From TrEMBL:
SMART domains: Aldolase_II
Protein source organism: Nonlabens tegetincola
Protein name (database record): Predicted rhamnulose-1-phosphate aldolase
GO molecular function, one term: lactaldehyde dehydrogenase (NAD+) activity
UniProt record similarity statement: Belongs to the short-chain dehydrogenases/reductases (SDR) family.
Length: 556
């Protein structure tokens, strides 16, 4: 392993020696600390993606003998927020004994059920599908991550050759295989065939690295990612332009946001043909470089490569053919242009399902797109709630970074459609979806509340949010709005100053709601004013103010 360094250009070094020292020799706490700081950098792994583990020696509660236990992120967790309640404790020897009963690729689903026979900690989270990938390796601390730079290497044409070019003999490589027990066996064999390596690149998937301590594992992961990032950056500079260069020039940002606010309710309506959806918009430099490029037409239909990406984004986006300067004020005319594109996407998705389905495949899910690209304007995503749609957007940005890196190295390659389908409609994935909590009564709905900076308006917003709605807080007082908005968790609310007696101010509030969530389903007019004076002391001005807010505000 190379000499450890603390200066990185392409990833964040977040290890705090004092913080780590506070955990003493508690290896589980150190593993959780490492997991959290790795998950804090989206260039290292995306939300919910990757897995981390450590090993300790514990006393078997039945024999009182020392046993090796692996602590690993449980199913459905996120390493950035991982804590004790989200991990599984597994007897390492019992997990390895599963090799004796493994019946091959057709036996993968049964093997997941057998993980339960290996549980040491009865309070464990359900073990994830990645458990054997860690358990069949011998290291004390292991990271399985999905860095954009590493997936770019993994998804590049001639990935194995590229791996050798970057890291020489210090890294192993295994071809694409769906996560499961067989992939664990392949990783184990790769290490046996290449003793002394510091990690393994998984084709079209991600990275495995390890260390004797949590810190060594952390540094090893960062160094491997840094080397890949440096290699890609060099290739991009050598190539000059990525994605074939610019084909379309972006509109100015203000115009992009105006267009996005206009079209999002239309897109939301079309995406909600089966289930109501919540929207998200992105127009970062990374997004605009890709969606305005010559190669968008070639790359977008190829789909994403990493399973974590397309499970969130669907296999490919819908690319709109609307001109960036399209007049969006005539909604009927715009819908006539959009509807055929959506119908074609749904039919293509149905064809994909019917071509690839197995005898025991779950029923086809919602055929509408999750990611929608409008060249010159930006990228939209639509899903069941704001967090899911935001994360889907982030995952497609990860996919863009992967395509960018792979195209710079050699050429981007995606998973075959059958492989993608077998993961998207894997029975284990379906079971995970079926275990999701029941949605709240107002889930998937957006409520705009006036006078929500405090008092009755804020109380109404609280109730709507508690029932699952996204809330748009409006008030004449910005300071009270900032305070009120801070009481909600991320992805629940937004706010905007609004004078209910001014039509332009009201229109801007609706635009904010559309840009943030995709539209408005519920309006609660709670703005009010009380002037406590005797009738003889009430002036014409007082009366006009009351009429404007309480009457005119309701009208407009």
């Amino acid at each position: 392993m190379q000499e450890m360094v603390k200066t990185f250009k392409y990833v964040d070094y977040l290890w705090d020696d004092k913080k780590a020292a506070s955990f003493g020799d508690n290896q589980v706490d150190l593993f959780l600390y490492r997991s959290n700081i790795l998950g804090a950098d989206l260039r290292i792994t995306n939300y919910g993606g990757g897995n981390t583990s450590c090993r300790t020696i514990e006393k078997d509660p039945l024999t009182n003998e020392d046993v090796e236990v692996m602590w690993i992120k449980g199913s459905g967790g996120d390493i950035g927020t991982l804590n004790r309640s989200g991990i599984a404790g597994i007897y390492v020897d019992r997990l390895r004994d599963l090799k004796n009963v493994y019946g091959g690729l057709e036996d993968e689903d049964r093997m997941v059920g057998l993980f339960n026979h290996c549980i040491y900690d009865l309070n464990s989270k359900a073990p994830s599908i990645d458990t054997p990938l860690h358990g069949l390796l011998p290291f004390a601390h292991i990271d399985h991550l999905h860095p954009d730079a590493l997936i770019a290497v993994a998804a590049a044409k001639d990935s194995e050759k590229v791996t050798k070019e970057i890291w020489g003999d210090t890294m192993g490589w295994v071809p694409w295989q769906r996560p499961g027990f067989d992939l664990g066996l392949q990783i184990e064999k790769c290490l046996e065939d290449n003793p002394g390596i510091r990690g393994i690149v998984l084709g079209s998937h991600g990275l495995f690295t390890w260390g004797d301590t949590s810190y060594e594992c952390y540094i090893n992961s960062l160094e491997v990612i840094e080397m890949a990032s440096e290699f890609i950056d060099k290739k991009i500079k050598e190539k000059g332009s990525i994605f074939g260069g610019q084909k379309i020039e972006s509109l100015p940002q203000a115009e992009r946001h105006e267009k996005a606010a206009q079209i999002m309710p239309l897109l939301r309506g079309l995406c909600s043909s089966e289930n109501r959806m919540i929207g998200h918009f992105s127009d970062t430099d990374v997004v605009m470089e890709y969606i305005n490029s010559h190669d968008l037409e070639r790359l977008a239909p190829m789909g994403t490569s990493c399973p974590d990406h397309f499970l969130r984004t669907k296999i490919q986006p819908l690319v709109l053919t609307l001109d960036k300067n399209e007049d969006l004020s005539d909604t009927g005319a715009v819908l006539k242009k959009l509807e055929p594109a959506f119908e074609a996407y749904r039919q293509e998705y149905a064809d994909y399902y019917n071509t690839c389905k197995r005898d025991n495949s779950p029923a086809m899910r919602d055929a509408n797109p999750v990611i929608i690209i409008y060249p010159g304007v930006g990228m939209f995503s639509f899903a069941k709630n704001k967090q899911t749609t935001r994360v889907a957007n982030e995952f497609y940005i990860n996919a863009i970074n992967v395509m960018r890196g792979a195209e710079a190295i050699t050429e981007y390659t995606s998973l075959p459609r059958q492989e993608a389908f077998d993961i998207e409609y894997w029975l284990l994935e379906e079971a995970k979806l079926q275990r999701m909590p029941k949605e709240q009564p107002l889930s998937r709905k957006v409520a705009l509340i006036t006078g929500a900076g405090g008092g009755i308006g804020k109380a109404i917003a609280d109730k709507l949010a508690a029932e699952g709605a996204n809330v748009v807080l409006t008030d004449i007082n910005e300071e009270s709005l900032v305070t009120a908005n801070a009481t909600y968790k991320r992805d629940v609310s937004t706010y905007t100053v609004c004078d209910v007696t001014n039509t332009d101010s009201i229109a801007n509030a609706y635009k904010k709601a559309c840009l943030e969530f995709g539209g408005v389903d519920i309006v609660v007019h709670s703005a009010g004013l009380a002037i406590s004076k005797p009738l003889l002391e009430t002036t014409d001005k007082d009366w006009a103010i009351l009429q404007n807010i309480l009457v005119k505000g309701n009208l407009i």
